[in-house]
Design brief:
Elements (H helix, E strand, L loop, with lengths): L2 H14 L6 H15 L8 H5 L5 H6 L7 H8 L2 H5 L2 E2 L2 E2 L12 H18 L2
Antiparallel strand pairs: 1-2
Length: 123
Amino acid sequence: MSKEINDHDSVIQSIENTRPLSAWGKGVKNAAIDLIGTLEGREITEYNLLNGASNWLHYSEGGCALIYNADIAEAYCTPSELKRFYRAGKNLAYECQPNSKETWIQLQARALSQACRLILKNC
């Protein structure tokens, strides 16, 4: 195996050993592991993690991560937060935004930015 692949494995192992306490932290941790998987042996840099996008919002808007509101909600919300988006068996995440300041895609971009920082911190 190349040195870069071994470095990826050690970074993944380091991230997997973290113990986030919140659903948000767990979502960021999972996103970090997924992002490393996209590198395909390339060096770990933010530029390579962005895979051609100019920033994490463009990465999310471009469909490089989760694309459905419900999937994003499940990745980063607690079960009690998810209850806000489920009524009468219907998933309302498609109709509701996570908060008054951002969309689901913007929330995911914020999480991916934090995942990138987590990766770079563990390099």
